[in-house]
Amino acid sequence: MSNVSGQCLCGKVAYRMASEPTRTTVCYCRFCQRATGAAQAILPVFPLADLSLRQGQPDVYTHVSEGSGKEIYLHFCADCGTRLYMTFERWPGFVGLYSGTLDDPSVVRLDGDTAKQIFVSSARPGTVLLAGVPAYWNHATTPAGAPEQAFVLDAPLAVEDLPSHRDRQ
After folding, report:
1. What is the pLDDT of residue 165?
2. Do 20 and 107 touch, CB atoms closer than 8 A?
3. Which of 28, 38, 50, 95 satisfies CB 3.0 to 4.6 Å to 123 for a cystine?
């Protein structure tokens, strides 16, 4: 059994995962900025079948992605408003946890083998991109599912110091 668990701010909704994260996405898109109130979302991803609720039942807000046109389901506590996790029409077998809800945030690894950075094009000025972690100007895949081209930095770098998108093509 995994030691991955978490809860909302007020503790009325709590979850447990039966596995460790398969990967972690660091997303800088405007949707994730708005959904978290932060510069990025850090989302460890798990098989949806491994999610169990220890307590309570979250409400769900459905949002249509501007990029894919697919629905994203935000699961949150109706009492305190904490967003706990996302599920996806596009990837129905997976769940992305909001890392701030984890009881032990150290379960999230941000390395080149298990993580990626997406929507670098939307990162706010002052955001420092991680070295050694694949980064994508937009999503890692096209809406049709084809892989996009990643770049990997040798050292951390502020997003405003990156060459422009046109220079990378």
Report:
1. 44
2. yes
3. 28
Exposure of 78 in the CB half-sphere (CA atoms within 13 A): 6
Measure the CA dihedral 33/122/127/108, to 10°: 60
SS3 call for 58: coil
pLDDT tens by residue, 99-126? 999 999 988 989 999 999 999 999 999 9
The tokens for 112 are: 């080149």
The residue length of the chain stands at 169
**CB-CB neighbours of 119 under 10 Å:** 24
Q: Are 167 and 149 in contact (CB under 8 A)?
A: no
Nearest to 121 by CA among 83, 79, 167, 156: 167
Mean model confidence pLDDT for the chain? 92
The pTM assigned to this predicted structure is 0.90
Question: Which residues contact residue 137 at a Cβ distance below 8 angstroms, ignoring those fewer than 6 apart?
Answer: 119, 120, 121, 148, 165, 168
Residue 99 in tokens: 């890392």
User: Which residues of the chain fall short of a pLDDT of 70?
Assistant: 1, 164-169
Say how far apart CA 150 and CA 118 lie, in whole Å. 9
